[in-house]
């Protein structure tokens, strides 16, 4: 569970600096689907990376 928080923090820090992904997805009148896809691919890539390393 802690790794999910770390992945989300790294995605915010590296992929979209200066913007919170959760704000882009939730706190807009029209939700930003692209930000949701970026977050989804970050989780998928992290799962592949952790599976490959361990």
From TrEMBL:
It is found in: Cell membrane. It is a multi-pass membrane protein. Keywords: Cell membrane, Membrane, Transmembrane, Transmembrane helix. GO terms for cellular component: plasma membrane. It holds the Pfam family DUF350. Belongs to the UPF0719 family. This is Uncharacterized protein. The lineage of its organism: Bacteria, Bacillati, Cyanobacteriota, Cyanophyceae, Nostocales.
């Amino acid at each position: 569970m802690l790794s999910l928080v770390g992945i989300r923090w790294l995605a915010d820090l590296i992929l979209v600096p200066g913007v919170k992904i959760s704000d882009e997805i939730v706190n807009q009148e029209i939700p930003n689907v692209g930000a949701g896809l970026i977050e989804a691919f970050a989780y998928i890539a992290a799962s592949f990376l952790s599976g490959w390393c361990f």
